[in-house]
Amino acid sequence: MKNLPEKVYDPKAVEDRLYDFWLREKCFSARVDPDKEPYTIVIPPPNITGQLHMGHALDNVLQDILIRTRRMQGFSTLWVPGTDHASIATEVKIVENMAEEGLTKNDIGREAFLERAWQWKEKYGGRIVEQLKKMGASCDWDRERFTMDEGCSHAVNEVFVRLHEKGLIYRGNRIINWCPDCRTALSDAEVEYEEEAGHLWHIRYDAADGSGSVIVATTRPETMLGDTAVAVHPDDARYQDLVGKTVILPIMDREIPIVADEYVEMEFGTGAVKITPAHDPNDFEVGIRHNLPVIRVLDDGGVVNENGGPFEGLDRLEARRRVVKKLEELGCLVKVEDYTHSVGHCYRCGSVVEPITSDQWFVKMKPLAEPAIEAVRSGRVEFVPRRFEKIYFNWMENVRDWCISRQLWWGHRIPAYYCNDCGEVTVARTAPETCPKCGSHRLHQDEDVLDTWFSSGLWPFSTLGWPEKTPELDYFYPTSTLVTGHEIIFFWVARMIVFGLEIMGDIPFRKVMIHGIVRDNQGRKMSKSLGNGIDPLEIIDTYGTDALRFSLVLNNSIESDMRFYYEKVESCRNFTNKVWNAARFVLMNAEGIVPMDPATLDLADEDRWILRKLDETIADVNRSIDAFDLGLAAQSVYEFLWDYYCDWYIEMSKARLNGSPEEKAVAVSVLLYVLERTLKLLHPFTPFITEEIYQSLPGVEGSIVVSQWPSVSGLGDEASAARTQGMMEMIRSVRNLRRELNIQGGKRSALYILPAAGKEGDFAVLPGYFARQTMASEVRLLTSEKEAEKGWVSALSPLGTVYLPVGELLDLEKERARIDKEKARLESEIKRAEGKLNNPGFAQKAPQQVVEAERMKLDEFRQMLERTIAMEKALFS
């Protein structure tokens, strides 16, 4: 045992030293142990593009709480750490960095660019790992992975080849989302939609035979240059005579057919829509059904190409203005309406996305989605809370083929090889030397890389050694819990379930714990543009890691977004100091005492009460953690330590700590017993301070990280606990009386107690702490209410009535004057509030919340007046 010398806990003197100790002692190392049940979490790998932010902090604290708890509960735990190469995001950062040097990708070439990318990874990937360690993350760092390390890259190639062999991966010219600024394809999940004010242009297409015209409405008139049809609903009586005829495409003077298709909504606009297969996903499907030509009029930079006639070379927005002007000149623009619609933006750079046809690689999602949907419906994979399953089902039930190729250099290069002589495409695990079709040796690999989410979708098994049959893969897969935010359910969660079922034949995890995001104190999302981002490392530097961790969890409903308040972090720092000072007090009093097992001791009522409270807290924490309600678990430990252990039990123990050696030994033994077990309950939330105190306790060995989780002891006693609880209620009654009477803290007087019927025995030996807690000079028991004298004020409690002789404590004349003044003040406030609420101008016109606040004030004033009058009667009747 050692003392805790500092009066105030100093995180800076503790945290780095303890984390190094944990790493040195291999406290976080995972082991394949057939005698234990495995518990596995794979970290959502943070991108190597930045540094730790509050979202990372919350996400990793939640994972760490689960892992530390399960480790102490006897599971063989593995928390797999790692980082993601994040192809688009990282490439954008590197390109921006190069631009400052006046360089472009093409200036230096692919090889030199990739060298820079790997240097970036070493610098920034390493930085975020160190930041995670600063947060106290108890990952098995010997198993750290990177989505582009050799093992993960091998897994990516293997999955690509297998899916291609099954016909689930194919190359085709299809409509995709294209970012003109990033110059790459995007999946549907990488497009963020925003409501924007725009226009709806109504354009007249005249029939080729002069028999009439059709009016179509569009939000993107520049794409009409690539129209290849006009579509109407087959049941629309307005257009049945026109189906099969042709109209003249304005400006381009090209004949295009009128087709009937159920895709068209008769109620929208005029019931006729332009069909541009190269620039709209729905139009593309209509084009396939009607065998329409596909004419792409925008290039990869969003500029009109050679198919755009007189508008070639114009940027898409300028082309829109020119097209509209030309339509006006031709008399084909019927009208323009204001229109608000949803516009897709690149999730990385924010540019407006262009749907275009392009040769890309795709994954067939329908056959993969069906078993993934069933896995969640059947409960094999469970979302916590369940309501987030709706997002998953909505995405999976409406999923389209996934475009997985990206026109980037940083990432897993697609394992497809093209013959320069015959054009044969070969997908292979390793580069072929000859073309299997013509025997040519002139082959080149596909220039594109895979979507980042393809490799991260394999994360639960690629990190465990797949495609090799490793002992870790056999033991730790499927993983136990995935902790992540709701915004990547379709990005990442869905794809891991798809790949796990398809490749491993089993789900990747059993539970998906979804949490909200951290917002600023005004409820706004933290962002660079708002300048409201908070660096968790700065918070740690000021308040310590434990205070930040606890503030992110305490009293928070994990599924909901939370607001960040510095005041809460400060409050949690104060809590850690409270725990520290309580431990210092106990350890100072424990010097020279060999603690004993409470089960062998003659325990006092208050000992059995605190032991019973400890059992209840252990049960509450277990129940809350099993339900992933970590905020409630934290609250249970907080209340037990602050309210019961520190504020009550330590105070109750002080009389015996100053008593006989035998009494002191019992009190110290229970104090240490409860402290040790409560530190273990608190450890997953605040790992550093709990380890530092734990190492100071007598008789402990090793680290708290690998100590045994506390179990319910049964040492508490209901009757003893009830007596102690009753005594506490009586103490509170006395304190409330003194507070209401404004009795100065240092003033003492006698205290008289009339036990309730049947409770006389509870006072046979009045606890030594009672007088101390009530500032009583002496405590006497009454046998009858008749013994109470005039001038005594009383309060009821479950154990009986307590009387306080205020004549010894107050100047009654001054108290009468004070009460009269307070009554007058409250009556005035009540009159004012009633007048305000009875005024129609206020009650009907003021905001509802203001009126309600005034009503609450009135109720409070009335209650205060009732208490003041009751006190007056008690003192002077």
What can you see in these coordinates?
- With 877 residues, this protein is an alpha/beta fold.
- Helix content is 43%, strand content 18%.
- The protein contains 25 helices and 29 strands.
- The two termini are 59 Å apart.
- The mean pLDDT is 91.
Brief descriptors of the model:
877 residues; alpha/beta; 7-stranded mixed beta sheet; 4-stranded antiparallel beta sheet; 25 helices; globular
Please specify the SSE layout and strand pairing:
Layout (H helix, E strand, L loop, with lengths): L14 H10 L13 E5 L11 H19 L3 E5 L1 E2 L3 H13 L5 H30 L10 E2 L3 H16 L3 E11 L4 E3 L4 E17 L5 E6 L10 E4 L13 E4 L4 E7 L11 E4 L5 H10 L25 H15 L2 E14 L7 E10 L2 H12 L4 E3 L4 H9 L4 E2 L1 E2 L9 E4 L5 E3 L15 E3 L3 E2 L1 H5 L2 H4 L8 H6 L2 E7 L3 H16 L4 E7 L2 E2 L16 H8 L1 H9 L8 E2 L2 H24 L15 H22 L3 H28 L3 H22 L4 H8 L23 H23 L8 E7 L12 H7 L1 E6 L10 E6 L2 E6 L6 H27 L1 H6 L2 H29 L1
Helix pairs in contact: 3-4, 8-9, 8-13, 14-15, 15-16, 16-18, 16-19, 17-18, 17-19, 17-21, 18-19, 18-22, 19-20, 23-25
